[in-house]
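Thread: "does anyone have the structure for this chain?"

Original post by V.I.:
We have the sequence but no experimental structure in hand. Need at least a predicted one for the grant figures.
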Amino acid sequence: MEIWINPACSKCRSAVSLLDAEGAEYTVRRYLEDVPSEDEIRAVLERLGLEPWDITRTGEAAAKELGVKDWARDAGARDRWIAALAAHPELIQRPIITADDGTAVVARTEDAVRDALSR
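Reply from O.Q.:
Generated one for you, tokens below.
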């Protein structure tokens, strides 16, 4: 199990605390420092069952500068979104837990973290 976190994020700290409390074995990826490649983002999206716009933090300054709110949300625009997430990792929703069964969850709630733990 791996968790992508930003240590400054309270939801990330809560998720890590819950993983620790449950005695889970996991690795931490500080994705702002160890930036995922476009291929890694594609793989996580597949595991999540989501599209790149589903995990984009559209309220971030970089998102506003890029104008992502106006970007198409279809198959033809998918690579553009993924490239933006790789170039601006602060746009990636967090935390993301990749579960041992090959799935992943955006673990912003205690229930989502527990869901990942149960997989």
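V.I.: this helps a lot. The longest strand covers residues 2-5.
O.Q.: and Strands lie at 2-5, 27-30, 96-98, 104-106.
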